[in-house]
Design a protein that fits this description.
With 321 residues, this protein is an alpha/beta fold. 43% of the residues lie in helices and 13% in strands. The two termini are 34 Å apart.
């Protein structure tokens, strides 16, 4: 496993990491989670991503219980969670980044994990109704009180991230050091265009999610929605339209000969392509069983086989040229 700096922060994360979105809770419990996390750790993965909103906190409980069973030394791994959506249907506790919510939500998250601190905490979405100064100061307090080591954002605009950094600098507060955006062959604009100057000038780290575009880039949705896939789960019906988009399917078909030429799967090629971007600190993988994770970890080999010529060939397909 290779390790990369989290932007300009001193901490290093495995270039492939593991996230629990969709799987922990709806698909698997503590037993399966323990097996998957144990294997990931054995392969050198040291960063494990979660969020308060995943299964309304159940995902955090499952991950925390699995880590406790595995008995990992606390210095050997990093764990994160994200906050904004909320899990309580009351005013001030959902769709917000106000100080009251953030402090109470992080404390509740720590209790579910069974940990005394998190390594990274994210503002899961921007909140236009809360002053940015209030949010930045609350995140600063949480870091200063050692509830977390670093804080960042997820799916914020470049302007919103710059505004947070400016407030932190003016007030001598802990600034965001990481952003968690979607990034894959079919979702490139935010990372490659909108964030370009921000990444160059501010050195923000990227912990990217959905490298397989929710499975579309594996090719398994070429003939519809398979039973047992995430798009067949209750509450994820919104994925169906994206996963059956004919234009995206056509791109996948054009990429398949490249994967075959490199002797890798389409999924491995897609993840390896994400790793080929030096601005990416880590690519977050998801898996509902050990076999899926084993296959996805083959992306390291795929990345090594992506020469500049192969990269250009892929870019021409993605750009429609």
């Amino acid at each position: 496993m290779n390790y990369r700096r989290l932007g300009r922060a001193g901490v290093k994360v495995s270039e492939l990491s593991f996230g629990s979105w969709v799987t922990f809770g709806p698909q698997i419990g503590v037993g399966e989670a323990t097996e998957i996390l144990g294997y990931a750790y054995e392969q050198g993965i040291n960063f494990f991503d979660n969020a308060e909103a995943y299964s309304s906190g159940e995902s955090e409980r499952i991950m925390g219980a699995a880590i406790a069973q595995l008995g990992w030394p606390r210095h050997s791994y990093l764990v994160s969670s994200k906050f904004y959506w909320g899990i309580h249907d009351t005013v001030n506790a959902k769709f917000t980044l106000n100080r009251k919510y953030l402090i109470e939500a992080v404390n509740a998250s720590l209790e579910r994990f069974g940990l005394d601190h998190l390594d990274l905490i994210y503002c899961h979405r921007p909140d236009p109704e809360t002053p940015i100064e209030e949010t930045v100061y609350a995140m600063h307090e949480l870091v200063s009180e050692h509830k977390a080591h670093y804080w960042g954002t997820s799916e914020w605009s470049a302007d919103e991230i710059r505004a947070a950094i400016a407030v932190a600098r003016e007030q001598h507060l802990h600034a965001p050091v990481v952003e968690q955006p979607e990034y894959n062959m079919l979702a490139r604009n935010k990372v490659e265009v909108e964030y370009k100057r921000l990444l160059d000038e501010e050195g923000i780290g990227l912990t990217t999610w959905s490298p397989l575009a929710s499975g579309l880039l594996t090719g398994k949705y070429a003939n519809g929605i398979p039973a047992g896939s995430r798009a067949s789960l209750p509450g994820y019906e919104w994925l169906k339209e994206m996963l059956t988009d004919p234009k995206s399917a056509a791109i996948v078909r054009k990429l398949e000969p490249i994967a075959k030429k490199l002797d890798v799967t389409m999924g491995q090629l897609a993840i390896g392509w994400c790793l080929d971007n030096p601005k990416v600190s880590t690519v977050i993988l998801g898996a509902s069983n050990r076999g899926q994770l084993e296959e996805n970890l083959g992306a390291t080999a795929a990345h090594e086989r992506i020469t500049p010529e192969v990269r250009d060939e892929i870019t021409k397909i993605l750009d429609g040229k």
